Amino acid sequence: MHPSAAKFLLLLVAAASSFLSVASHGLPPRQLKRNASCLPHERDALLAFKGNITSDPEGILSSWRRGRNDCCRWMGVTCSNQTGHVLELDLNYRNLTGQISPSLLSLEHLEHLDLGTTFLSGHDGRFPEFLCSFKNLRYLDLWMLSFASRLPAQLGNLSTLEYLDLAHAYSLPSEVPPQLGNLSNLRHLGLASNYLYTTDISWLVRLHQLEYLEMDGINLSTIDNWLHVVNMIPSLKSLSLQNCSLPRANQSLTHINLTKLEMLDLSMNYFGHPIASSWFWNITSIQFLRLSSTYLYGPFPMH
Ligand SMILES: *[C@@H]1O[C@H](CO)[C@@H](O)[C@H](O)[C@H]1NC(C)=O
Ligand SMILES: *[C@@H]1O[C@H](CO)[C@@H](O)[C@H](O)[C@H]1NC(C)=O
Ligand SMILES: *[C@@H]1O[C@H](CO)[C@@H](O)[C@H](O)[C@H]1NC(C)=O
Ligand SMILES: *[C@@H]1O[C@H](CO)[C@@H](O)[C@H](O)[C@H]1NC(C)=O
Ligand SMILES: *[C@@H]1O[C@H](CO)[C@@H](O)[C@H](O)[C@H]1NC(C)=O
Ligand SMILES: *[C@@H]1O[C@H](CO)[C@@H](O)[C@H](O)[C@H]1NC(C)=O
Ligand SMILES: *[C@@H]1O[C@H](CO)[C@@H](O)[C@H](O)[C@H]1NC(C)=O
Ligand SMILES: *[C@@H]1O[C@H](CO)[C@@H](O)[C@H](O)[C@H]1NC(C)=O
Ligand SMILES: *[C@@H]1O[C@H](CO)[C@@H](O)[C@H](O)[C@H]1NC(C)=O
Ligand SMILES: *[C@@H]1O[C@H](CO)[C@@H](O)[C@H](O)[C@H]1NC(C)=O
Ligand SMILES: CC(=O)N[C@H]1CO[C@H](CO)[C@@H](O)[C@@H]1O
Asked: Where does the Disease resistance R13L4/SHOC-2-like LRR domain start and stop, copy by copy (predicted)?
């Protein structure tokens, strides 16, 4: 036999026997692929997050335990097969109550964070600004969360974002400070419930990859240039601005960049001008358009 052929045969035998020895340990090769397991510091970060959850009626975090070390198998957690880093955290619709711990920042590779329809918030009920520091985040869903603060402009730092849902994120009235009792001569005190609002959305233009934006219920009434801001996000496919107190839809656009827009929802904003003068008619990519309760009137444009 040629020496190199012998070597090859030897390799084959070695490979076969190592496969056999693995098989005799009862591990199917398929399972070997899924070997990458949770990293200890990421597991600790998740446990710290759990530590700030005050109520978990569905018990979904019951699998999050120190004794069960591989956090990649915990409910709501998805890791990379290759590296074991946590890539996704999905706790949507779980009725969790509590504060979102900044410990999550240890999940440096996080791409997908879905806390929608939970009762979570940041420290003191504020918007958890540290969420704006994730480097790889593509998906952020805070649907129906409430915060006692404004939206931070730092959201514009999430330049890899493709999906952003802030709909119905509204703020609860902040606690009345006990110091008000010191104002003993007070005659009139106005304490309106201040819903989440923002006076500046220019940070949005830094989200170069944004495809989905939902800000339903956020008062944008003071932002006259909102359309020009949105028009600088050519990647947008879906835009929902229901009930945002938008003042009008008859702006003119000198150049339309929204060539990928398929879904537009402007319902529940009082426009009250002729429908034909609306800016969206030239966006031919739109497949789904919702305009209920906008008080737009008159004939549709004829082109
Ligand atoms: C979650 O909360 C919703 C609304 O408050 C409630 O209808 C539902 O029953 C709750 N689910 C559980 C499992 O607690
Ligand atoms: C993990 O591996 C499976 C099968 O090998 C693959 O389908 C899946 O996309 C991988 N997931 C990640 C996050 O890499
Ligand atoms: C989270 O829990 C830790 C430890 O119990 C506590 O020190 C910290 O103040 C909590 N943070 C928040 C934001 O609730
Ligand atoms: C985040 O954005 C703020 C405000 O836009 C900016 O001042 C800050 O330097 C940014 N931080 C990082 C880490 O990029
Ligand atoms: C307000 O009144 C409280 C007592 O009710 C007192 O302890 C506190 O120092 C007062 N604060 C100011 C700013 O006067
Ligand atoms: C619209 O938003 C306002 C706050 O800006 C809120 O009071 C109202 O309930 C919302 N309406 C609907 C139908 O969501
Ligand atoms: C939105 O904000 C404007 C300006 O602050 C305010 O006048 C208006 O009442 C708000 N709209 C709603 C529905 O709260
Ligand atoms: C989009 O349109 C505006 C004019 O409305 C223009 O200034 C801008 O350069 C265009 N392109 C992008 C990528 O925003
Ligand atoms: C929209 O289309 C109409 C008719 O085709 C044209 O007159 C108008 O200039 C277009 N507007 C923009 C912003 O392209
Ligand atoms: C847009 O509509 C408003 C009423 O909502 C009207 O006051 C304004 O003159 C209109 N602007 C243009 C350019 O048509
Ligand atoms: C389940 C499994 O295959 N675990 C193995 C992962 O890899 C380490 C060494 O890298 C082994 O010790 C484990 O048995």
From this structure: 101-267
